[in-house]
Recover the amino acids of this structure.
């Protein structure tokens, strides 16, 4: 269930993990009644949630599937998935194909397909309806493929890339996208998938590997648009790469806005535009884009957390702390949720609490984003008078920064806070030369407040086209 995703005609549908888990549970127990207690136990286990959230999730699923009849409410008992299921086979594995009870489509038309990919592969076929049908003589485009194996490879790639807990997911997804391209070189979507995969690897790696992966991502993005100049996915990733890799702010905004024109209901593009606008200091516009993304996908973790960097850049720490506490309650054990919460506790200057959270997190996993914890802890130790611990933690961060520009960027924040502006500027200059992607936040990062009047800092902003 953790590696699940929902697809429609080869396109990944944005849906929250909780909504997807609910759908999978209903499909697995098709024809049976799933009680609200069972939903709470299996979907929201170890998470505090009001029962109204179940109503909201079911309503959202019905809207997503665009067929209210598929999920039936059984008064005072629960919910039931009503479609008929038959077994199909793909890659030697048996999976259910779900059909509605409607008449068979005519020869001129075929039904719209929904694919629910998980431990099971579920194909939900919806019957004649203006919302789901297209004419059989409609010409194929580069955003589609008549090669079913190419479509399957693309679908698998998107599924893997979207899965958070798959080891080396980016490399595995790229392998599937490359298979799809080999099977159908004119199929545009796998190239967009390649660009997303290489971009994800670039974000995780440091110089010089990051630059090589950004270069591969750019080539794939351009190929996507060469094959289909009206593909929103192509403009979305190209615009994001212009922000991440080129610091071409205007070019990034142009591409992202064009992607929205082509696909106004794409929550990911609205989120990306919000992050771009915030890095430029246009926080009100950024919040407006997040609001749109939230309306499109109101319980997606990535959308819910999109407000955090904007609120941090606006110095709205009280509101951010409140939202991060709620996010943490709903995502227990999520490393990002814990770190985001600790960040706003830090900005509220509750340094003892930061130390408690940070030490506990490092004790559980001393490798995942250790540099971020070291950065928060080093200054927190200084602020609470624990100078020996502060020095040791800073030395640990400095050792990481020798080979990791993400750690170097975090170290620059510590230097700025601890009254070492020369060291901070030197570290930032190295991050600039290595094209560290976190430099995109340089203009609005609150931990660089002590550098704002430094002429060297202002020159660096100007070099990055911020001023």
């Amino acid at each position: 269930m953790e590696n699940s995703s929902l697809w429609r005609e080869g396109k990944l549908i944005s849906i929250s993990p909780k909504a997807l888990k609910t759908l999978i549970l209903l499909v697995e127990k098709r024809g049976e009644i799933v009680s609200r207690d069972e939903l709470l136990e299996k979907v929201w286990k170890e998470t505090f949630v009001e029962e109204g959230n179940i109503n909201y999730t079911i309503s959202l699923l019905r809207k997503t599937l665009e067929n209210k009849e598929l999920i039936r409410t059984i008064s005072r008992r629960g919910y039931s998935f009503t479609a008929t299921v038959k077994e199909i086979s793909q890659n030697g594995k048996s999976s259910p194909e779900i059909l509605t009870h409607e008449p068979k489509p005519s020869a001129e038309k075929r039904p719209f397909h929904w694919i629910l990919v998980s431990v099971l592969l579920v194909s939900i076929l919806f019957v004649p309806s203006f919302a789901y049908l297209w004419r059989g003589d409609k010409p194929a485009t580069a955003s589609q493929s008549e090669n079913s194996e190419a479509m399957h490879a693309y679908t698998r790639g998107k599924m893997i890339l979207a899965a958070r807990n798959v080891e080396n997911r980016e490399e595995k997804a790229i392998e599937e996208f490359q298979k799809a391209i080999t099977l159908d070189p004119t199929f545009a979507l796998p190239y967009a998938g390649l660009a997303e995969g290489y971009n994800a690897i670039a974000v995780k790696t440091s110089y010089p590997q990051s630059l090589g992966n950004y270069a591969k991502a750019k080539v794939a993005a351009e190929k996507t648009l060469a094959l289909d100049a009206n593909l929103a996915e192509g403009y979305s990733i190209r615009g994001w790469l212009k922000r991440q890799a080129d610091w071409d702010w205007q070019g990034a905004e142009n591409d992202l806005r064009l992607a929205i024109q082509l696909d106004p209901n794409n929550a990911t593009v609205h989120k990306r535009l919000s992050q771009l606008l915030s890095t430029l200091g246009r926080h009100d516009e950024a919040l407006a884009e997040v609001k749109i993304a939230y309306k499109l996908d109101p319980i997606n973790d990535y959308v819910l957390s999109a407000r955090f960097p904007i609120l941090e850049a606006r110095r709205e720490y009280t509101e951010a702390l409140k939202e991060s506490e709620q996010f943490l309650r709903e995502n227990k054990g999520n490393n990002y949720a814990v770190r985001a919460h600790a960040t706003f506790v830090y900005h509220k200057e509750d340094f003892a609490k930061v130390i408690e959270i940070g030490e506990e997190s490092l004790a559980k996993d001393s490798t995942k984003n250790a540099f971020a914890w070291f950065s928060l802890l080093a200054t927190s130790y200084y602020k609470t008078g624990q100078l020996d611990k502060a020095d040791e933690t800073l030395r640990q961060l400095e050792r990481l920064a020798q080979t990791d520009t993400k750690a170097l960027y975090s170290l620059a924040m510590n230097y700025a806070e601890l009254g070492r502006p020369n060291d901070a500027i030197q570290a930032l200059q190295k991050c600039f030369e290595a094209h560290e992607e976190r430099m995109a936040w340089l203009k609005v990062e609150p931990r660089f407040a002590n550098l704002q009047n430094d002429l060297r800092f202002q020159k660096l902003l100007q070099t990055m086209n911020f001023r």
